Amino acid sequence: MPKHGRRYRAAADSREAARYYGVREALELVKQAATAKFDETVDTAVRLNVDPRHADQIVRGTVNLPHGTGKTIRVLAIAEGDKAREAEEAGADYVGTEFIKQIQDGWLDFDAVVATPDTMREVGKLGRVLGPRGLMPTPKAGTVTMDIAKAVKELKAGRIEFRVDRTGNVHAPIGKVSFDLEQLEENFKGFMDAVMRARPAAAKGGYVRAVTVSSTMGPGVKIEPTQFRKTA
Description:
Layout: H1 6-13, H2 23-33, E1 41-48, E2 60-64, E3 75-78, H3 81-90, E4 94-95, H4 99-104, E5 112-115, H5 120-123, H6 127-130, H7 148-157, E6 159-163, E7 169-176, H8 181-197, E8 208-215, E9 221-223, H9 226-231
Parallel strand pairs: 3-4, 3-5
Antiparallel strand pairs: 1-7, 1-8, 2-6, 8-9
């Protein structure tokens, strides 16, 4: 078992570990428990009643958080000609097809990748590098598109992509502890709405098993999951 410091133990004592809280109360506790000397990220973890080993039970999607994530997103746009200029004007941090070779050589100084369809023949070669890191652009996620300017702007504004892991969990950042409670609450609702919409038809029974929110260095706070089961 990992040993936790005095601050973590004090924060953990501020909430009842076995108790389920309402959304607002849980987020309040997360903010109160964040005592690190930096602006901690607030994360949501959702345990789903799906079996990711079956293709028809994969849960994935994207969501534009109303108030962003609070993180500066470095966007790489792989495009040429007019589309490269559009991406640059939209705020992309890196633009061009020359970055394909740089990634193959080990460069990974970015947080998101968008690409135009005509470049995917070459971008596809990066699957082994970008795929495991959740950075591979795909049409379903809206990161392979001719409207590359829109994709860049949405990513810079706080659009996130989520995907269920092999244990049936979905994780996502929903802001920073410096956010107002209302902002965190609205971001949380936006994320959960997206998870509910992404429910696969093959999922049986209660879709949401558990929901927990926490800060980077703080303990998890459980949210009553039945409200989401009813929605499902």
